[in-house]
Amino acid sequence: MKKYFPALQYANVPNTITTVGLIFGIAACYFLVAGNLQKTLLCLFFSASMDLVDGFFAEKLKQQTQFGQQVDSLVDFFICCIMPIGLVFAFVGKYPILVVPLAFYVVCGLWRLAYYNITESKGYFVGLPVPAAMLLVTISIWLVTAYQLPIWIITVVLFLAGLLMVSCVKLQKYGRWQKVLWVVVLFFLAVVVTS
């Protein structure tokens, strides 16, 4: 089989988890087009969760590959950088004031992913990982949409998240900050589901 489909030689646990995250992202696109913010956010959070888990399994199972790193970055770019554009324009509105911060956020996400791929990690992240940045942006979109808060909040969060992604901030892999992030995600999911 691998003779005819050589990419299948990279089928392993972490790459399968990454692929499941992509499938959740595709489902998020469907619900985005359908105009269902709640289901779009749920799918995006499940997708981001897969991204947090795939790296853990890659390290634990010693299944880290260049192929997996590239697949992970491509999925991250789609889910965490491109999807927020659709979220903003679909649920917040087509405001020209949001174009510049969205472009800034996407460019910073792209540069963050490329930088991560060419540097050695040594047990920590340099700059905020894009899934964490996407969670910040998604929460701000939800708050502005659900509670009719001012749009400038999203603008500030997009710029802040972009700057954090390309900053020199060092975050330990699987450190306390990720546990706090999981608590925030679970709390936010509970709020989205019950609203």
* Quaternary organisation of the protein chains: single chain
Q: Count up the domains.
A: 1
In whole angstroms, how far apart are the ends? 48 Å
> Rg, please?
17 Å
List the strand order in the largest sheet.
Answer: 1-2
Spans with pLDDT under 50 lasting ≥5 residues? none
Strand fraction equals under 5%
Briefly, what is this?
It is built from seven helices and two strands; from the N terminus they run H-H-H-H-E-H-H-E-H. It is mainly alpha-helical.
Please tell me about this protein's structure.
The chain has helices spanning 13-34, 37-60, 66-92, 99-118, 130-147, 152-165, 176-194; strands at residues 124-126, 170-172. By secondary structure, it is mostly helical. The protein has a single domain (6-194), classed as CDP-alcohol phosphotransferase transmembrane (TM) domain (Four Helix Bundle (Hemerythrin (Met), subunit A), Up-down Bundle). The chain has a two-stranded antiparallel sheet with strand order 1-2. The mean pLDDT is 91.
